[in-house]
């Protein structure tokens, strides 16, 4: 190969690499993580994915929890809306394939939402390390608070921005101010304890679809907007973890 051909090949490869890097930069990966089971990870992952898709964003969701609740919910969703018409590309993955999967999706989607298993397992750690933002759902109880420590410490060690989402908050919760007084990075939006979340979920749907004008749907919309704003700040490099 002549020197001239080699230079052209080099420039083309470099440009392609830059293009891929730009595409990857445009994508945002959000992992929903919390050591405690039942804190609302799957519920929040599904609602975030559906809401973003309702905003015409290209959304992939990865279920890395061996329990597979998000995948089961998506299976029902496919029956309701038809294969390929759920608004979300759901991928079920575990083990060493997780990281490769995330990287290959980054060039094709605006958002990748990852639902992770309880306990800080290897896959959950991999997902956190490759994320732009980690959302940690926490119910207002001492055991949820203690379980949260592990995830926040792991995010801090790895320089990954995180936000705590207070979930299933009862009205006028007296314990909340005491529980949260030493917590950093709490989202302003809180999610109430609402049965409608479960009923829409059973039908493969989300509350913004089944009851779009309900208080629960309003909370989810506020949550999504707050998360989008947080991501803009993170991507602009103005955030200190
Ligand atoms: N804000 C909420 N209000 C009422 N029920 C909720 C709420 N968030 C989650 N749940 C319910 O709590 C249970 C556990 O939620 P889930 O999302 O499966 O938690 P995780 O994935 O962390 O184990 C489910 O039955 C779900 O419907
Ligand atoms: Mg779950």
UniProtKB/TrEMBL annotation:
Pfam families: CbiA
Alphabetical list of CDD domains matching this protein: ParAB_family (cd02042)
Database matches in InterPro entries: CobQ/CobB/MinD/ParA_Nub-bd_dom (IPR002586), DNA_Partitioning_ATPase (IPR050678), McdA (IPR048089), P-loop_NTPase (IPR027417)
Domain CobQ/CobB/MinD/ParA nucleotide binding: 30-224
Gene3D superfamilies named in the record: P-loop containing nucleotide triphosphate hydrolases (3.40.50.300)
Name this polypeptide is given: Chromosome (Plasmid) partitioning protein ParA
Species this chain originates from: Candidatus Jidaibacter acanthamoebae
């Amino acid at each position: 190969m002549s020197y001239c051909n080699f230079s052209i090949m080099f420039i083309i490869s470099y440009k392609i690499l830059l293009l891929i890097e730009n595409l990857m930069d445009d994508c945002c990966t959000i992992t929903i993580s919390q050591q405690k089971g039942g804190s609302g990870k799957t519920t929040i992952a599904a609602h975030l994915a559906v809401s973003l898709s309702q905003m015409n964003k290209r959304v992939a969701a990865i279920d890395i929890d061996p329990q597979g609740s998000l995948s089961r919910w998506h299976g029902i969703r496919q029956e309701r809306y038809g294969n390929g018409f759920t608004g979300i590309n759901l991928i079920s993955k575990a083990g060493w394939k997780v990281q490769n999967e995330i990287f290959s999706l980054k060039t094709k989607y605006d958002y990748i939402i990852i639902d992770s298993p309880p306990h800080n397992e290897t896959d959950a750690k991999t997902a956190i390390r490759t994320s732009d933002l980690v959302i940690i759902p926490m119910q207002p109880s001492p055991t949820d608070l203690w379980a949260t420590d592990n995830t926040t410490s792991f995010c801090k060690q790895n320089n990954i921005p995180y936000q705590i989402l207070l979930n299933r908050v009862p009205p006028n919760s007296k314990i909340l101010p005491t529980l949260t007084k030493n917590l950093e990075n709490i989202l302003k939006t809180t999610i109430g304890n609402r049965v409608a979340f479960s009923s829409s979920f059973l039908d493969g749907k989300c509350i913004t679809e089944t009851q779009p004008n309900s208080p629960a749907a309003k909370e989810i919309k506020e949550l999504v907007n707050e998360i989008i704003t947080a991501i803009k700040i993170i991507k602009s490099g103005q955030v200190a973890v």
